[in-house]
Specification:
- The complex is a heterodimer of chains A (198) and B (647).
- Chain A starts with 13 loop residues before the first helix and ends with a helix.
- Chain A is mainly α and 198 residues long.
- The relative contact order of chain A is 0.18.
- In chain A, 80% of the residues lie in helices and 0% in strands.
- Chain B is mainly α and 647 residues long.
- Chain B is built from 21 helices and two strands.
- The chains are: A mainly alpha (198), B mainly alpha (647).
- At the A-B interface, helix 1 and helix 5 of A face helix 7, helix 8, helix 9 and helix 20 of B.
Chain lengths: 198, 647
């Protein structure tokens, strides 16, 4: 493995550079995937049949909490990568932990929100609008869940191996993923919730 | 669920299939044990990360699927050969045309293309492997898991029966209550994941791993076509992912996306399906364009005419492929304005395609043409594909399309595009690159015989369908009365189908015969070709290039041969290669088991399977495998042995 010390650790080998570029390409595919779901949602969002409409079930409170948690976590993962570049193991682990806890909090609020919807009689099976809403939010939530497991695993690896081209590369890619989830959420916040509440 | 629901019963043909599956499986297991090949199979093939071997496995799978899909086609033609035929009942016929379409497009054309690109692209750009060799193996095993899962549907649980387009509400749980369409949504999802990873892998490979000096505008045309194709894959396949996910939710979890009540919208499926489905057509046709460019240029002994316009037209085609999807359902009521826009964009595709056709003709102009088997396929492709293209423009006119929508005319059109385009393309590619992989050529005489039988039978089969379609014979009908007058033309078409089967049998015999008797070649360049892959010895050592070539112009190998200078100026050094791994294979098996339980709604098994998938991912994440080095002494020895050269 040829290591180039002139660049950040995560870019230091040929393989690492390819992985980061490959992950950007993969994120392109993810963008198409979420765009498709948004298109489905916009097509179906007022096709509510006999079921509830967006205005009847959306509440701004939990959504604001979710938004705050996730946006903050995107900031803290940035701090984690910054600490990693400076070689500060403790700070990196700390910011990683904070990021994952914020993600966990987001997920918790989202689950409570889902339970509320179901209790109000709005389930995946109710109407086309609810189907597309649950699928869009659910897919984003599933990404967050996967991210929690992924991030936890990376923390273990960093603890064991320290900052190596491998762990640095993986953590950097994880941060790209996490920022991406944040971007998707901004679209959900604006075009699902704010539009639905209006 | 009872046993007689689990296994498909009541059809003598299916019983025959079950018996033959069991016999073939026993024969394979017994043969591997008797010849003590289990270890060889595991070490050399199941665990390989070598792009060439993965490519070969793709191609073998594709050939097997060609025969599975071909038998489906023959059964359809047998059923339609005479009026009021009772060979197949309507349900069985529905299942057969559905699996014929799915298998031919997704499990034959796609893997054949992906197999060739696996074999050729790293060689053409001077790379030792793809960017992510392990991921490449995962892609293959996911494709294979999906294909096998789909294939067992006809004996276990019943095949999908709503057409390869699986239009709602036809494919909903209400109108298609068997597990058939569950197989469709889940098997396609699994192999689609593999395809998406291949797309990512090849974009990175082509953009990041080219030999020094090979700029984008010096890349061989086949590599260019694969780059464009990979970009289409990355942008089109996620749409399929979502469409299949929603289908699964609708069928198995009671959601209301495509239902007829509660706000669901069945047309949404048609749109999603074709937003992926139309670019998919170009995913299987653009690489064939790349292959023909290589073949025609090599066997005309001329450089490709209009290289830049070739690249440009491919890029334009890839963009247009995303804005024409509604031409698949002009008659489903989206108004004159929408139809008009899609009509224009559809016809526009004929322009860049026409540019390509003329470029090939000009490449041949004043060339010293050599009529080898791959060249024959390229030459056969041009007129036949043009017929397909012209009828495509006829179909593109929305107002006229109301006349022949959903008739045999359409069936004839897309077979006239896809068979010369994709099938001739991959066969030309197989004959062309075969010596690179195995060190000998396929017998040319037998190859030409197979070509003539296939090309003539093809026209006998599909030309009558144009007339039948214009006479009003709709597609997907399993029988017709004598008064319609469709009998004679159908009979001719069915005779042609038998001819096609004979042609493909000759082709298989050709491969078998050549493996046993064809003379072995030591020269790595049997065709006197132009691109980089031919500068390596045949068969290729697994590290591809002992030294990195330096590229100064297009067709660098051709000019190196002419000037007598070597492309390779560096010293030999240690070569870094990835290690083999059994994980991709195991992951594929787990995915298949998971998919199987999902199809039958057996949630406990499905959850265990899903956990297995995550465990595999975690194992991979914690593993540290940095490959190994081949010492320079071994490299030099191998090169001397293969090339007989003094170093």
């Amino acid at each position: 493995m040829k290591i180039d010390h002139a660049v950040p650790l995560e870019y230091s080998t040929e393989e690492n550079k390819n992985r980061i570029f490959g992950f950007w390409v993969f994120l392109g595919a993810e963008i198409v995937m979420f765009s498709t779901l948004f298109a489905v949602y916009f097509t179906l969002w007022n096709r509510t049949g006999n079921g509830p409409t967006a205005k009847e079930i959306f509440e701004i409170g939990p959504v604001l909490i979710e938004t705050f948690l996730l946006l903050t976590s995107s900031f803290t993962i940035g701090l984690a990568i910054n600490s990693m570049r400076q070689g500060l193991m403790k700070a990196t682990m700390g910011f990683f932990a904070v990021t994952l806890l914020l993600g966990l909090g987001f997920l918790g609020v989202e689950i409570i929100e889902f339970v509320t919807y179901v209790n109000e009689g709005a389930t995946l099976q109710t109407n086309a609008f609810m189907s597309s809403l649950f699928t869009l939010l659910g897919l984003h939530g599933a990404h967050v869940t996967l991210g929690l497991v992924w991030g936890g695993g990376l923390m273990l690896q960093m603890k064991r191996e320290g900052f190596t081209p491998d762990t640095a590369n993986k953590s950097f890619i994880f941060s790209l993923y996490w920022h991406f989830l944040d971007v998707v959420w901004i679209f959900i916040f604006s075009f699902v919730y704010l539009k639905g509440l209006m | 669920m009872k046993w007689d629901e689990f296994f498909v019963t009541g059809e003598p043909m299916i019983y025959g299939a079950m018996v033959s599956i069991v016999i073939v499986s026993i024969a394979i297991v017994a043969g591997l044990t008797y010849f003590k090949k289990w270890g060889y199979l595991w070490r050399e093939w199941l665990t390989t990360v070598d792009h060439k071997k993965i490519g070969i496995m793709y191609i073998i799978s594709a050939l097997i699927m060609l025969f599975r899909g071909g038998v489906d086609g023959l059964l359809m033609r047998a059923q339609l050969a005479v009026p009021e035929n009772g060979l197949l009942d309507s349900q069985h016929y529905n299942e057969i045309f559905t699996t014929h379409g799915v298998i031919m497009i997704l499990f034959m054309a796609m893997p054949f293309i992906i197999g060739l690109m696996n074999v050729v692209v790293p060689l053409q750009i001077g790379a030792r492997d793809v960017a992510f060799p392990r991921l490449n193996a995962v892609s293959f095993w996911l494709f294979f898991a999906g294909a096998m899962l789909f294939n067992i549907s006809f004996v276990i649980g019943g095949s999908p029966d709503a057409g390869w387009t699986a239009y709602f509400p036809l494919s909903s749980i209400e109108f298609s209550p068997t597990v058939g369409n569950n197989y469709y949504s889940i098997a396609l999802q699994i192999s689609g994941l593999g395809t998406l990873m291949t797309g990512v892998n090849f974009i990175v490979t082509i953009l990041k791993m080219r030999a020094p000096g090979m700029t984008l505008m010096r890349m061989p045309m086949f590599t260019w076509s694969i780059l464009v194709t990979s970009v289409i894959i990355v942008f089109a396949f996620p749409v399929l992912t979502i469409a299949l996910l929603l289908m699964m939710l609708d069928r198995q979890f009671g959601s209301q996306f495509f239902t007829m009540a509660n706000g669901g919208m069945d047309m949404l499926w048609a749109n999603l399906f074709w937003v992926w489905g139309h670019p998919e057509v170009y995913i299987v046709i653009l690489p064939a364009f790349g292959i023909f460019s290589e073949v025609i240029s090599t066997f005309s002994r001329k450089n490709l005419y209009g290289y830049k316009s070739m690249v440009f037209s491919m890029v334009i085609i890839s963009l247009l492929s995303f804005v024409v999807w509604a031409h698949h359902f002009y008659t489903m009521g989206h108004g004159a304005m929408v139809n008009g826009v899609f009509s224009v964009t559809t016809m526009a595709i004929a322009i860049p395609t026409g540019i390509k056709i003329f470029n090939w003709l000009f490449t041949m102009h004043k060339g010293r043409i050599e009529f080898t088997t791959p060249m024959l396929y390229a030459l056969g492709f041009i007129p036949i594909f043009t017929i397909g293209g012209v009828t495509g423009v006829m179909l593109a006119m929305a107002s006229a399309d109301y006349q022949y929508h959903n008739t045999m005319f359409l069936v004839a059109h897309f077979h006239y595009v896809l068979i010369p385009g994709t099938v001739f393309g991959v066969l030309a590619g197989m004959y062309y690159w075969f010596p690179k992989l195995f060190g000998f050529r396929l017998n040319d005489k037998q190859g030409k015989l197979a070509f003539w039988i296939i090309v003539i039978s093809f026209n006998v089969t599909f030309l009558p369908l144009f007339a039948l379609g214009l006479n009003g014979m709709t597609r997907r009908m399993y029988t017709y009365s004598a008064e319609t007058g469709f009998g004679l033309l159908n009979l001719i078409a069915s005779i042609g189908a038998v001819g096609l089967a004979i042609g493909f049998a000759v082709l298989v015999y050709n491969i078998y015969w050549s493996f046993r008797y064809a003379p072995r070649e030591t020269n790595g360049d049997p065709w006197n070709a132009r691109t980089l892959e031919w500068s390596t010895p045949s068969p290729i050592p697994h590290y591809n290039f002992a030294r990195m070539p330096e590229i100064k112009e297009r067709d660098a190998f051709w000019f190196a041969k002419k000037s007598g200078k070597s492309l390779y100026t560096e010293e030999y050094s240690d070569i870094h290669m990835p290690n083999n791994s059994g994980q991709p294979f195991v992951l594929g098996v787990i995915f298949m088991i998971f998919g199987f339980f999902m199809v039958f709604n057996w949630w406990v098994g499905a959850v265990i399977g899903a956990i297995g998938i995550f465990v595999m991912m975690i194992i991979r994440s914690f593993e540290r495998d940095h490959g190994h080095y081949i010492p320079v002494k071994e490299v030099v020895a191998t090169e001397q042995r293969l090339r007989g050269e003094q170093v």
